[in-house]
């Protein structure tokens, strides 16, 4: 029986090496087979000339075989001009015994002139008894192009966010953190190191929400637990006090094992201009409704008073049509002014144009630039139309020598600041007061006074009619002076 010490046995602390032959010495031929079969491009340069290249190097740079690269100046043949200085510096450092780390990316020039992106490292070695540099190359063109495409895509994304006044951020509801994009911080008017914020009851996001909209925060968190994507709209108050309307969506990108929202991305756009436009439309709708009711009331009053004083149906039709045209003239003027009121001078000229050439010597119009409210414009327009109608029929404009003067001034020394508007006729037939008071009297005194909340006086002087209206400042939109 053989001695137990001669029996093979497993090592107590390592792998069983029973039957493993001793390692053979690594020969030059073995090194060569590894280098020749490597997928890395490998060259050895000495005295600025390539003395060795493996097949992968030749294929990488577009040469038929490695031998065709021997003797080439590597800086001129392989490196793009923009990166030659960098490589001369790195190579000189290696010759001097220094170490160089892999370069993140430089431009190489293939034999056909095309450019490829490479990364490389190098080390000092010996070649035929002399010092040389061995360099190892990897083609990273596909990776580099992907990085460039990603950067361009991110730039387009950021440009789109900026152009659309949009911002984005990601909220981690478990880690209780919030990561802001630059556009998101710009939108909210905040600045955080690396865009890192917090998630909590009084974080930078909740603090920025308009107090009247903060109740929506809890609502959106509930929606995130129930839906992968949901709409959001609310107001924020920036640090400078500006109030913005935001609208967008929240997108849950991961959930907890229990199904609750874990990570949430929010993308919001500034819709303040749209909201302002919507409010303006709502205001205009209400204004049109209000104006329409008022206009119908005025038309009803005109019709009622005209028919009472008409001598016949034809007379009613003629008078009613004329008065409606005068009313329509005021409406057209107000529509052009978007119902913000109208200048008195425009009201006067628009009403007179159907009766007389306003630039003729027979008409004098003078007064400061004053804009009156829409209701005042309507009342003044009706009064001027009625005065012009009477002037053509019975007054200054019924003959060739008559003249009308319309002027207005601000009464700053009155108990209440007001505007005085005066119509004066001269040179016409001798005036006699009318024997009865028709609709014209109602328009010129009762209706105008009631509409303007002011005082109206009409006198029948021998030389012509004088009509004066004192219009309270409440009827003025703009006026010169303090």
Ordered list of secondary-structure elements with their pairings:
Elements: H1 28-37, E1 41-46, E2 49-53, H2 55-60, H3 74-78, H4 84-95, E3 106-109, E4 115-127, E5 130-139, H5 141-163, E6 166-172, E7 177-180, H6 182-188, E8 196-198, H7 204-208, H8 215-226, E9 229-237, E10 243-255, E11 261-270, H9 272-309, H10 313-336, E12 342-343, H11 344-352, E13 363-366, E14 371-372, H12 374-393, E15 403-411, E16 418-426, H13 439-452, E17 455-461, E18 464-472, E19 476-478
Parallel strand pairs: 13-15
Antiparallel strand pairs: 1-2, 1-5, 3-4, 4-5, 6-7, 6-11, 7-8, 9-10, 10-11, 12-14, 14-19, 15-16, 16-18, 17-18
Helix pairs in contact: 9-10, 10-11, 10-12, 11-12, 12-13
Notes on the structure:
- With about 475 residues, the chain is α+β, with helices and mostly antiparallel strands.
- It folds into three domains: about 35-140, PAS domain (Beta-Lactamase); about 160-270, Beta-Lactamase, CATH 3.30.450; about 275-480, Heat Shock Protein 90.
- About 40% of the residues lie in helices and about 25% in strands.
- The protein is built from 13 helices and 19 strands.
- The chain has helices spanning about 30-35, 55-60, 75-80, 85-95, 140-165, 180-190, 205-210, 215-225, 270-310, 315-335, 345-350, 375-395, 440-450, and strands at about 40-45, 50-55, 105-110, 115-125, 130-140, 165-170, 175-180, 195-200, 230-235, 245-255, 260-270, 340-345, 365, 370, 405-410, 420-425, 455-460, 465-470, 475-480.
- The chain has a six-stranded antiparallel beta sheet, sandwiched between helices. Strands 2-1-5-4-3 form a five-stranded antiparallel beta sheet. A five-stranded mixed beta sheet has the order 13-15-16-18-17, with helices on one face.
- Strand 3 and strand 4 form a beta hairpin.
- Helix 11 (about 345-350) runs parallel beside helix 12 (about 375-395).
- The chain starts with about 25 loop residues before the first helix and ends with a strand.
- About 25% of the residues are buried.
- The model is unreliable at about 1-15 (pLDDT under 50).
């Amino acid at each position: 029986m053989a001695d137990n010490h001669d029996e093979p046995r497993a090592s107590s602390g390592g792998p069983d090496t029973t039957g493993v032959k001793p390692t053979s010495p690594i020969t030059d031929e073995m090194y060569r087979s590894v280098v020749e079969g490597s997928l890395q491009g490998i060259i050895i340069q000495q005295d600025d000339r390539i003395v060795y290249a493996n097949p992968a190097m030749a294929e990488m740079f577009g040469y038929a075989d490695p031998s065709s690269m021997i003797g080439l100046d590597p800086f001129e043949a392989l490196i793009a001009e923009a990166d030659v200085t960098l490589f001369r510096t790195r190579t000189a450092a290696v010759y001097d015994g220094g170490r160089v780390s892999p370069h993140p990316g430089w431009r190489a020039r293939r034999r056909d002139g095309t450019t490829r992106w490479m990364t490389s490292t190098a080390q000092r070695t010996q070649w035929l008894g002399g010092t040389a540099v061995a360099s190892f190359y990897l083609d990273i063109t596909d990776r580099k192009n992907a990085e460039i495409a990603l950067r361009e895509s991110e730039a387009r994304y950021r440009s789109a966010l900026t152009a659309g006044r949009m911002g984005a951020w990601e909220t981690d509801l478990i880690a209780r953190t919030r990561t802001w994009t630059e556009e998101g911080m710009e939108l909210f008017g905040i600045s955080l190191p690396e865009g890192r914020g917090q998630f909590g009851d009084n974080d930078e996001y909740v603090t920025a929400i308009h107090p009247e909209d903060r109740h929506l925060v809890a609502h959106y968190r509930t929606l995130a637990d129930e839906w992968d994507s949901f709409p959001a709209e609310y107001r924020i108050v920036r640090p400078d006090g500006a109030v913005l309307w935001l609208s967008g969506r929240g997108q849950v990108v991961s959930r907890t094992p229990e199904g609750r929202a874990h990570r949430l991305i929010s993308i919001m756009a500034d819709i303040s201009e749209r909201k302002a436009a919507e409010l303006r439309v709502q205001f205009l709708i209400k204004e049109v409704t209000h104006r329409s009711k008022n206009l119908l009331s005025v038309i009803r009053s005109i019709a009622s008073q005209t028919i009472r004083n008409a001598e016949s149906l034809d007379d009613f039709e003629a008078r009613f049509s004329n008065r409606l045209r005068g009313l329509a003239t005021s409406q057209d003027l107000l529509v052009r002014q978007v119902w913000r009121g109208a200048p008195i001078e425009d009201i006067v000229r628009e009403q007179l144009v159907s009766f007389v050439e306003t630039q003729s010597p027979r008409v004098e119009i003078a007064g400061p630039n004053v804009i009156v409210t829409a209701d005042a414009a309507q009342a003044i327009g009706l009064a001027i139309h009625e005065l012009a109608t009477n002037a053509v029929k019975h007054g200054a404009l019924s003959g060739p020598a008559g003249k009308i003067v319309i002027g207005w001034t601000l009464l700053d020394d009155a108990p209440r600041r007001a505007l005085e508007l005066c119509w004066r006729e001269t040179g016409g037939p001798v005036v006699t007061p009318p024997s009865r008071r028709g609709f014209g009297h109602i328009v010129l005194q009762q209706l105008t006074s009631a509409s303007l909340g002011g005082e109206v006086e009409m006198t029948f002087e021998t030389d012509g009619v004088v009509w004066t209206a004192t219009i309270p400042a409440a009827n003025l939109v703009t006026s010169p002076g303090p």
